[in-house]
Amino acid sequence: MAREVNWERNHDPVGIWNGRGKAALIARGHSPTDRRWDGESLDKSLGAFMMIAVQNALDDAGITIDDVDGIIGSAGGQPGGAPLSDVWGPRPYFDPPYDSEDGLTHVTGQWLRQQMGFKNIKYINNHGDPIWNLIGQAAQAIADGRAETVVVTYPNGNLPGRYHQDPTNEARGPAVWPNTWGWGLSGQGFTFNQYCQKYGTNHDRMAPFVVQERKNGLLWEHSYYAQHEPGEFTEEDYLNGRMIARDLSIFDCDRPVLAAAAYIMTTAEKAKDMKQTPVYIWDHTESLFSPRSLVQTIDDTEEWTDIQAQRSYNGSGITADDIDVFAPYDGFAVFTQYYIEAWGWRGVKRGEAHDFYAGDISLKGPNPLNSGGGNMGTGRMRTVFITDPLEQLQNRAGERQITGRAEIAVSHGVLPVRAATVVRSTTPG
Amino acid sequence: MARPIVPVPDPATQPFWDACNEGKLIVQYCSVCDRRQFPPEAACRDCGFNFHLTWQETSGRAKIVGYSITYDSRLVQWHPLQPFLNVIVALEEDPVINFHTNLIDDFGTNLSEEPDIPIGATCEVQFVEAEPGRMIPEWKLVK
Ligand SMILES: [Zn+2]
User: Considering the domain A282-425, what is its CATH architecture?
Assistant: First the structure.
């Protein structure tokens, strides 16, 4: 199995994707959503959850394991691609198949193949990138003929204790620059503060956006909040959020959770015989930037998001007016405005996103931003950005179904510095 | 004063840290691209090579671009100093080039109230000991 590189469409001009309409996303499957794995219950490990999600996706598509010839996934879905075990393992392991990290806090395609009994796999890739990149990678693999029916896996783990705490007292490599001066999430707050200074707005004006996302998320059955904390979240709650850094509160940060999701993507031809309505991939584009100097500024951020938005428009051939379902990433909530403004969704220009939040962004209104609730409304699993637009375009989003047209969806993540955009449509194009 | 986390040089950054120990603030400079580069890297980010990459001493003077305050860091060693100030300064002769500083001498670490940070104010570099034998740059206001 060759290890291919350069599958990303990250050099301008990208041009209309030659795989447009060749790959269709058909189905999704989710595991239960927990706050953390307890370290003991093997039926609730990340591997067990991943297998539940894969089986649910197969059932949703109306196919079996024998129909699948590719697995593309993230082994762990953690920030920076770092395995969770880096901060938790090693530990005493269990009997096979839980005799290593694989299956507990990490799930490779190879482990899944062995455990679930996939027999016809000819392509596996544990790329380890965020879900938007994985969807693009799967679409490219299908368009290039590497596989015909792919399961895309996205396990996201969370363990006991505080998330991503770093106890070291020496900084090495790239960590030298932030850690020596205690820089961390302060960076998110800093860029957001520059945005506020530039456009005369403030952190409080984020409240309507985050509150709406929590409302939307409560209507998504896989949301952490829908399953475990279904109470109302108000603007007052948001405004009283504990500050993590200046201009970044606990309610701008996504809640780490334990959950897995899987997607079935196949050729346009095979999609016709599956159980759900095909949703065609029109385009995928990616980008990786570097700040001009040490600290990412608002100038860097606006330049990068403009480049990626234009790249996506050029690659898909759509315009802002075509976007019915818009799902820009929100984990952290304080950067979503950069995406809305770069894409110019609903005519929002630079500096206008907070005015937009103050208007009608409700689910049943004209501007149903992040109709699935984003990470703020569902927890840090990221998969709502793929699942909700899929369900909207398949007209099976239930209570979340938007009232307007739902024919073209744009999903975008993860960070301004490292981004991928997927454009989907109800027609092959 | 000792710092919570100390930097460990690597081949790309060793000249920068050595210069700090001599009281100089240096950044990389690519003569064919005519651009300064910080943080240091093995190659110029624009042309992609190190053919024209040298080190250039700077004035050490910088202007305050903005700041953040950390209340709850993921860096455990910094927890005893919370809340603490994170200031960004940009080099006077090349505002694209920016640095972190904690401006410890000027603002201390008592940040229960929003500090009055003079955005745009001029600072000059000073070097403080992160641990014996390891100096790091910090900035102080020019009064
Ligand atoms: Zn150069």
Answer: 3-Layer(aba) Sandwich (3.40)
The CA distance from A14 to A314, in Å, is 7
Task: Measure Cα distances from A268 to A9, A167, A322 in Å.
Answer: 21, 50, 22
pTM over 0.90: yes
Question: How far is ligand 1, taken at its centre, from the CA of residue B45, in Å?
Answer: 6
C-alpha span between A35 and A255 (Å, rounded) = 8
Give A216→chain B minimum CA distance, Å: 29
CATH 3.40.47.10 positions along chain A are: 23-162+256-271, 282-425
SS3 of A173, please?
A: helix
Per-residue pLDDT of chain A (429 residues; tens, 9 = 90+): 445 558 899 999 999 999 999 999 999 999 999 999 998 999 999 999 999 999 999 999 999 999 999 999 987 766 555 667 666 667 789 999 999 889 998 899 999 999 999 999 999 998 778 999 999 999 999 999 999 999 999 999 888 877 778 889 999 999 999 999 999 889 999 999 999 999 999 999 999 999 999 999 999 999 999 999 999 999 999 999 999 999 999 999 999 999 999 999 999 999 999 999 999 999 999 999 999 999 999 999 999 999 999 999 999 999 999 999 999 999 999 999 999 999 999 999 999 999 999 999 999 999 999 999 999 999 999 999 999 999 999 999 999 999 999 999 999 999 999 999 999 999 998
Q: Which CATH architecture has domain B59-143?
A: Beta Barrel (2.40)
CB nearest B68 (choices: A170, A174, A246): A246
Of A184, A244, A290, Cβ closest to residue B45: A290
Closest-CA distance of chain A to residue B95, Å = 10
